[in-house]
Amino acid sequence: MAARLVVALLAVSSAFAAVSGQKYNAIFSFGDSMSDTGNLCVNGPPAGLTLTQPPYGETFFGRATCRCSDGRLVVDFLAERFGLPLLKPSKQGGADFKQGANMAIIGATTMDSSFFQSLGIGDKIWNNGPLNTQIQWFQQLTPSICGSTEACKSYLGNSLFVLGEFGGNDYNAQIFGGYSPEQASGQAATIVDAIGKGVDQLVSLGAKYVVVPGVLPVGCFPIYLTLYQTSNAGDYDQYGCLKRFNSLSTYHNSLLQSKVNQLQSKYPGARIMYADFYSHVYDMVKSPSNYGFSTNLRACCGAGGGKYNYQNSARCGMSGAYACSNPSSSLSWDGIHLTEAAYKKIADGWVNGAYCHPAIQS
């Protein structure tokens, strides 16, 4: 009896250690401009892309790195937290990806181009690497990372996967293509199903630790607040965010949380985590001073002044735009992406806080 008790306690202890003191082999990241660490720029910066210009990257790197921020992103902070190097972009030739690779690319969508063509908005997307394509890029790398299929199952089973966020650009394409937020929400179930299939694919390859982030409260972002501002006070919530656009985000996220719960039941041997991007960023909007921010709805880097400091014709990195003197006091970096300071707080919230369910490390 005592022996059985000791064995049981050891099993519980080792299971706890696997979660609370997890030492990952690697981190593998997928997503869009919230996560890209350079894939879009590996063959040289695309013409006209402002994020390859100063002041992007000024806070940490001292130069533009093709990251859509003044410094590091959530995935950079996760790598640092687990003692791993900052993730190299997967398209970087000749790199060693054994400790991680980043498949994320600016402009990425969940859905393939045919989906947007069917909606009549094929011209509104870049589609440099939708979710399916990013998983293919990852599969092409795995032989150099871990060898045989069997060896990879073991190696990847002790790696952390971050799948997104995905969905933001799927909705951006529709909104910027003339769809209302309510019309765009009609595609949410299809988009969430595709994200779920992405998780299925990763688990089939051996993934056991998968973080699946939701989309952000875009109704609080300077780009949306500028482009879709109205004179009707009823269109705004008490914090100054556009309600219709946030309702689209919360609808997507409710479906995604249900999907993650289904996947966790389907794969009891895996740890599939819903990262609540929305609630954390919305809390920063509601209580900016709690996070050290003096401004929440205004872009640090931009032009035009006013409430939001955003102009499409003078975006961050373009002539006429400039960065605020202290980006760490701002939530929004360029009107559509966040500052390094915000991303660090978000990463902390995912690792051991209240904004990832279950937390990455608990």
Automatic annotation (TrEMBL):
Residues 1-21 form the signal peptide. InterPro entries: GDSL, SGNH_hydro_sf, SGNH_plant_lipase-like. This is GDSL esterase/lipase. One of its GO terms (molecular function) is hydrolase activity, acting on ester bonds. The keyword Glycoprotein applies. It comes from Eleusine coracana subsp. coracana. Keywords: Glycoprotein, Hydrolase, Signal. It holds the Pfam family Lipase_GDSL. Belongs to the 'GDSL' lipolytic enzyme family. It comes from the Eukaryota.
